[in-house]
Amino acid sequence: MSHAQTVHHVDSESGLLPAYELVPHTDVDADDEERGGDHGVGLDTTDRGSMAGSGKGIDRDGVKREGRKGDGVALLGAAASTIILLLASWLGILTNDPTSFGWFAFHPLAQSTALAVFTYGILTLQPTSQPPTKAAGLARHQIAMFAFGTPTLLFGSFAVWYNKVFGLVCLLWLTVQVGVGAGSVWYGGKAFGGGAKAKAIWKYHRLSGYLLFPLMLFTAHLGGVWSHWSNTYLTTSVRFLAFILAPVVILVSVYSRIRPSKMQFF
Predict the structure, then answer these.
(1) SS3 (DSSP) at 5
(2) Cα(20)–Cα(33) distance, rounded to whole angstroms?
(3) CATH for 71-262, options being 3.30.110.170, 3.40.30.10, 1.20.120.1770, 3.80.10.10
(4) Over the stretch 63-110, which tens digit does the pLDDT of each residue have?
(5) Is 22 helix (H, G, I), strand (E, B) or coil?
């Protein structure tokens, strides 16, 4: 590129995503791009003309492919296990006179759906390392987490708010997680001082999310294996497959796709 160009992937006036400035190309390696964080503000970009000419790992828009060996297998493992958990939860309610459960019927339906949405929200953002893909991934991440996952989890939690210690911990933690994530990105990260200060918060948001996610899976395991409802209406094999094996596969799959270079603390 011969001059600086500002690209608005999402309307910056809405405050949901910042504009991205593509500056003249300089020599930057992959690790430098990775260290930029998820939203890619201020990153130098590789000249697309030379990238397209190389013909290796470049799509028609000149964006480098970001998949890493094993990512595809991990993605399939997470997706299949999430579907199993989701189906077991929904069928366990819908095939056993759901009206007889009262408000409780909404709990496994909402929580399993929210967990599936959170899994997607994490998976879709993990491999991104270039400004265009980071912007698109962040948009999908925010829609999944803020618009669908969090409201669904809140609804499911309020359906059975009592005697749910782990669920309450997850709920409170998630509230902070969403606040920090939104504050570090929306309106240019003004909540945390904007610019580099706000950008530096993102790695803590990411680390917190990776610590919260297994706690949420463990909470689903407790409800799916040990609750009175699951023991009454789900067979032993279904409980094992959906709430013991599936959470483990989901966690291993998600963790295998972590990019440590996006969380450099030292």
Answers:
(1) strand
(2) 14
(3) 1.20.120.1770
(4) 777 778 888 999 999 999 999 999 999 999 999 988 888 888 999 999
(5) strand
